[in-house]
Write a structure and sequence with these properties.
With about 525 residues, chain A is α/β, with parallel strands linked by helices. Chain A contains 18 helices and 13 strands. Helix content of chain B is about 45%, strand content about 10%. A seven-stranded mixed sheet of chain B has the order 2-8-7-6-5-3-4, sandwiched between helices. Chain B has a four-stranded antiparallel sheet with strand order 9-10-13-12. Classes of the chains: A alpha/beta (about 525), B alpha/beta (about 450).
């Protein structure tokens, strides 16, 4: 009998369901407190019981370093038991916790149909079948590496060239991160990571490697930018705790923020790591989702423009086709390192997660088609921008603010004023409201180790236009309803100070009374 | 000679700077000779013939025939959404159709003598990943797995490199055809304990690489009893199960467990792959099949680091679900491998070389100990170098497989055409003849 599990997911699409018997959905996991953002694997009660009866497996197997006990995955249950469908289930939960890019499959499908030679299973491509099927060289097909280098360059507006000989394969970016961690750090050593960050890092960088992640705390006070002060503070804190820091991991563009670093900040980061003689790992998995042409700056460009800014042996890029092209199923992860030894070692380690040569062949053919690639990148940006803008516009109408962004497949939404109090408990409570009443699955900021409660990541590129309309409608009507309740309660408060069910924080009061508040909308005025 | 000053790597991990990746083993040195001067029937008939690569190239025509006849099934059909759904599918449970097809294929390879539950099939990118993953789950750093010698050199990397787990050898000897004995098991276990190393399991390869022979049922029973007594795990790497020349000579641990009503099965795990039986190493298709629920769940989670491309899952799901095709393939593949084996054994015998009596795999275990200057690894390596540079054949020395007796070599026969095999055999024949003459003269 297999322990119950159902549909699983990967990367931001969601890591698999937690075992329903084990997870008690009505009781939230203890959200991280401000002071406890440094996570180390612990053991849940259920697993402890299993352990005792079966001290049979390794520590890695029996701790919860797999990360599936994070609240990040609880929303899946609600979605999977009641998924939205326009005809069959129009009141179901809409999935907005899944950072997938579904906007450009028509372009790809069209290309596939025109190029049967890309598949080794067609008459046109079949003569390659045997060669491809027996090729297991961990260098990868040369044309695959060349095509990836070419694509990476074009995604960055051709501002920089990539050397195909530095392209190393891995099992998705998931595999890439783990491999880089194995190469750079020993068990117990640490990487610094700016918060909020992608929850999968807790597993990818720590689970089997024994490496730690230490937060570089960022917050809304400065738009979640990574400041030198925060970096220094995190570094010092590690030193005080006798933890050796081996590197800094940044995601650029950021998940969950949807922002990217400007040149000055990148230079600051590079100078910082160079001064400390630690590595810099740049996850550029969302490089192609930047909505404005020619604005994204890759770390590769910094190195090219300022060749003496740092010891290049410290710089490593992680990339993948899962987001930019929407191919998470094909497991195309890339490590690109400026350090020859790391290239060599990572390549040996890639034996544990090579890309299927069938897939290498198809991707190589597709990405060698320069016309297709240029058109795809351009069109994808356009569609993402359009989707992004329609959301921001509609949300602004009801006074929902998000962090200003121009990349990624999601928004970092500011829902602080909907919390009863500025705590993570309140965030979880409100999150359940979002799932159960508004019927949207979004990701609570606490699961991204955000230091401030009230932020939520909301994905927008994994649905069609009709679903977008429905989602926006639901959000708007909830906000308007909520404002009405607040107004009524406010007037009650003046009469019945002691009978409040809703406590208004003073900040919320200011929000309500601000000139930007939807309370100023003619619609509401008419109703009060 | 100038002294090379090696700069220390900028803050890399111990794993990165260790040599446990194993590529400095002689197993890989032969590659260099081959890569620099590869044999080609037409363009380079005096080049090095690659006999160190356990690949199965004898049955590709059957696969190609299948693909030609089943275009739609392998190319997402005509549906626009077919590609999209496949490209987005990243569920670590894997395509259900594919898991079912794998379970069914594994059953067919065992002639229906064991049943496999698709829900216990965990998918990984190759057996390389499967073995490493299982090791992470079954043992802590510093612990050991017992592995019978001689064994596949890749284990040194797969089981040890990033896991920090050790391999303690179970010594097997030619006197009883390298079979695993209860005494050898106990001796290995005791040896580990004497070094204060905790033993977590036994890992066997059945059919064996490099021996090219199946493990007898009686021996499997003894191994199962041993791991039960010691309360440790048993991993059975059955990657060559479809390469047993006679279906009834291969007994899977699954059959033994079934006959015992699955008592003590929670300590058993099977590794499989399509790299050898189907000859598809490039596609990276491996599986962990465990009778232990917790291992299945954990292995599935870990497979996130090493999932099989959904494109490949889709193709193979349709291929392996076609029972008519798979039955035919399995049968014909066995016959062709058997024929190759007989060809090489007879050819070697004519040259005066004996091999271990084998009945499976893509290689034979050749005995050159009569031709060694003395019974040492040094002499083994010397003759190996001669074979590489004079005879121009790349074969694998037993020492790289941790064989405790020098003079044995693994020689692959399924990764070339019959014509090339003939050329290789005649070269060996001439080589031995030349040596005899030299001996006579002396």
């Amino acid at each position: 009998m297999v322990v119950g599990d159902a549909v699983g997911r990967e990367r931001d699409s969601g890591i698999p369901h937690i075992d329903y018997q084990r997870m008690n959905f009505s009781q939230p996991q203890t959200p991280p407190s401000f002071n406890d953002l440094h996570f180390s694997p612990s053991i849940s009660k259920m697993e402890l019981a299993l352990n005792n009866s079966n001290k049979f497996l390794s520590k890695i197997a029996t701790n919860d370093g797999h990360g599936e006990n994070s609240p990040y995955f609880d929303g899946w249950k609600a979605y999977d038991t009641n998924p939205y469908h326009p005809q069959n289930n129009p009141t179901g939960v809409i999935q907005m916790g899944l950072a997938e890019n579904k906007l450009c499959f028509d372009l790809i499908q069209e290309w596939i149909e025109k190029h049967p030679e890309a598949s080794i299973c067609t008459p046109e491509g079949g003569f390659d079948f045997k060669e491809i099927a027996i090729f297991q060289d961990y260098h990868g097909l040369p044309m695959f590496r060349a095509a990836i280098a070419n694509f990476m360059s074009r995604v960055r507006g051709n501002h920089v060239r990539f050397d195909p000989d530095r392209i190393v394969m891995s099992g998705g970016a998931t595999g890439a991160h783990e491999t880089v961690a194995f190469c750079l750090a020993n068990p117990g050593e640490a990487f610094l990571v700016p918060t909020p960050y992608y929850p999968g890092f807790d597993r990818d960088l720590r689970w089997r490697t024994g490496v730690q992640l230490l937060p570089v705390v960022c917050g809304s006070w400065n738009n979640f930018e990574v400041s030198l002060g925060a970096l220094e503070e995190a570094y010092e804190k590690a030193k005080e705790s006798n933890i050796k820091v081996k590197g800094l991991l940044i995601t650029n563009p950021s998940n969950p923020l949807g922002t990217f670093f400007d040149k000055e900040t990148l230079k600051t980061l590079v100078s910082f790591i160079n001064e400390k003689n630690i590595h810099l790992i740049c996850d550029e998995i969302y490089a192609g989702t930047v909505t404005k042409d020619n604005e994204f700056i890759s770390i590769a460009e910094i190195l090219e423009e300022f060749p003496t800014i740092c010891n290049q042996n410290l710089i490593h890029i992680v990339y993948s086709l899962s987001k930019d092209m929407g191919f998470p199923g094909f497991r195309i992860g890339i490590i690109y390192s400026y350090n020859d030894t790391v290239v060599s070692i990572a390549r040996k380690m890639s034996s544990f997660g090579l890309v299927s040569t069938q897939t290498q062949h198809m991707i190589a053919t597709m990405l060698s088609d320069d016309d297709f690639v240029e058109n795809f990148i351009h069109e994808s940006r356009k569609r993402l921008a359009h989707r992004h803008d329609s959301f921001t516009r509609d949300l602004a109408q009801v006074g929902i603010a998000s962090l200003q962004s121009n990349a990624g497949l999601f928004f970092w939404m500011d829902l602080r004023r909907f919390l009863k109090e500025p705590t993570f408990d309140a965030e979880m409570t409100f999150w359940r409201v979002i799932i159960n009443e508004i019927k949207l699955n979004v990701s609570p900021g606490s699961s991204f180790h955000c230091s401030e409660p009230g932020w939520f990541r909301v994905c927008f590129a994994n649905m069609d236009d009709e679903t977008v309309t429905v989602a926006l409608r639901r959000i708007k009507s909830f906000v308007l309803k909520n404002k009405l309740i607040e107004i009524k309660t406010k007037s009650k408060k003046q009469c019945w100070q002691n009978n409040l069910h809703l406590k208004l924080s003073s900040r919320r009061l200011e929000d309500i009374m601000s000139p930007h508040s939807p309370l100023n909308s003619p619609l509401l005025r008419a109703q009060t | 000679m100038a002294i090379e000053i090696v700069q220390p790597s900028v803050g890399l991990s111990k794993i990165a700077v260790s040599e446990t990746h194993g590529e400095d083993s002689p197993y890989f040195a032969g590659w260099k000779a081959y890569d620099e001067n590869p044999y080609d029937e037409v363009h380079n008939p005096t080049g090095v013939i690659q006999m160190g690569l356990a690949e199965n190239q004898v049955s590709f025509d059957l696969l190609e025939e299948y693909l030609e006849a089943n275009l739609e099934a392998s190319n997402w059909g005509q549906k626009v959404s077919g590609f999209r759904e496949n490209a987005l599918f990243q569920d670590y449970h894997g395509l259900q159709t594919f898991r079912k097809a794998m379970a069914s294929f594994m059953e067919q390879v065992r002639g229906g003598k064991a049943k496999f539950n698709p829900d216990r099939v965990v998918l990984t990118a190759g057996a390389t990943a499967a073995n490493e993953l299982l090791t992470f789950i079954l043992a802590d750093p510093g612990d050991a797995l017992l592995v019978p010698t001689p064994y596949y050199p890749g284990f040194d990397r797969d089981l040890r490199w990033r896991t920090g787990v050790q391999i303690v050898p179970i010594h097997c000897e030619s006197s009883n055809n390298f079979q695993i004995t209860p005494e050898a098991l106990e001796a290995a276990y005791d040896h580990a304990r004497s070094m204060n190393i905790k033993v977590r399991g036994v890992l066997i390869t059945n059919p064996s690489n490099p021996l090219g022979a199946t493990i007898q049922r009686k021996v499997l029973e003894e191994i199962l009893d041993f791991v039960t007594r010691k309360n440790i795990h048993l991993v059975s790497d059955e990657i060559y199960s479809g390469s047993a020349f006679y279906a009834d000579e291969f007994v899977s641990i699954a059959e033994v467990l079934e006959s015992r009503d699955y008592t003590e099965s929670e300590r058993c795990h099977i590794v499989y792959s399509l790299s050898k039986d189907l000859g598809l190493p490039g596609f990276r298709v491996g599986t962990v099949y465990s009778y232990n629920d917790q291992v299945v769940t954990t292995a599935r989670r870990m497979s996130s680091f090493t999932l099989i491309s959904s494109q490949t899952q889709f193709l193979l799901a349709s291929m392996l679900s076609d029972k008519e095709f798979t039955q035919k393939y399995i049968k014909i593949n066995r016959e062709r491998l058997k024929k190759r084996y007989e060809m090489i054994i007879n050819g070697l015998r004519k040259a005066g070389i004996e091999c271990l009596k084998g009945n499976a795999g893509l290689f034979c275990w050749m005995n050159l100990s009569p031709y060694l200057e003395d019974a040492t690894v040094k002499s083994e390596i010397a003759i190996w170098k001669t074979i590489m540079h004079e005879v121009r054949l790349n074969i694998s020395p037993g020492s790289s497989c941790h064989c405790s007796e020098p003079g044995w070599f693994r020689v692959c026969f399924a990764n070339m055409s019959e014509e090339t095999l003939e050329v290789a055999l005649s070269r060996i024949h001439d080589f031995i003849e030349r040596r005899k003459q030299v001996v006579c003269i002396q």
